[in-house]
Amino acid sequence: MLVLLSCDWLVLLCCDWLVLLCCDMLVLLSCDWLVLLSCDWLVLLCCDWLVLLCCDWLVLLSCNWLVLLSCDWLVLLCCDWLVLLSCNWLVLLSCDWLVLLCCDMLVLLSCDWLVLLSCDWLVLLCCDMLVLLSCNWLVLLCCDWLVLLFYDWLVLLSAIGWFYCPAIGWFYCLAIGWFYCATICWFYCPAIGWFYCAAIGWYYYFTIGWFYCAAIGWFYCAAIGWFYCAAIGWYYYSTIGWFYCAAIG
């Protein structure tokens, strides 16, 4: 063993480990691990994992997973899924589905269906059917029929193909599958799989799996596995396994 001692540092050297002690830092080094300790951070490095601990965040990194923990959010990243958790929202992202849970709404998105759930409305969108449900109206739309239930009247449409109600702004064309409501700005076309709601900024393109919400800045593309949130600067590319957060760099 070798010992080096000075007024502001200490070195201990042995056959299989090394200790460095300074005024504000400690280093422990061995053949298979490394420890860096300071007044405001800690680093643990082993053969297959890394731990970074600071005053307000924790990072756990391994060959097949990553964990980012802070005072107000948690990120879990594995080979085929991503979890983002905060005090008021939750995001679950996999190669073939996406779940967004916020304080007053829930979004379930897959390659062949979309569900939007809020405290006062529900939207179910599948490859050939659309369901809009609220406290005072219900819409069932399929490739060859339409059902509108509003307050005290019911409309069943399948034969003539055209429907329009200027009072609430409903418009529907069976031939091309267009559906539009001016009151709440719903728009849907099953032929190309477009769905849009201007009131909350939802946009969904079923054919290529695009999903976008302008209100919170979410963007997702199932075809290439892109996920982005402008509000907190998250960026994830599942195809090549890229993950980036602008907030912490």
TrEMBL record:
The keyword Membrane applies. Keywords: Membrane, Receptor, Transmembrane, Transmembrane helix. The chain crosses the membrane at residues 9-29, 41-61, 73-91, 122-147, 153-173, 185-205, 217-237. The keyword Transmembrane applies. This is Glucose-dependent insulinotropic receptor. It comes from Dissostichus eleginoides.
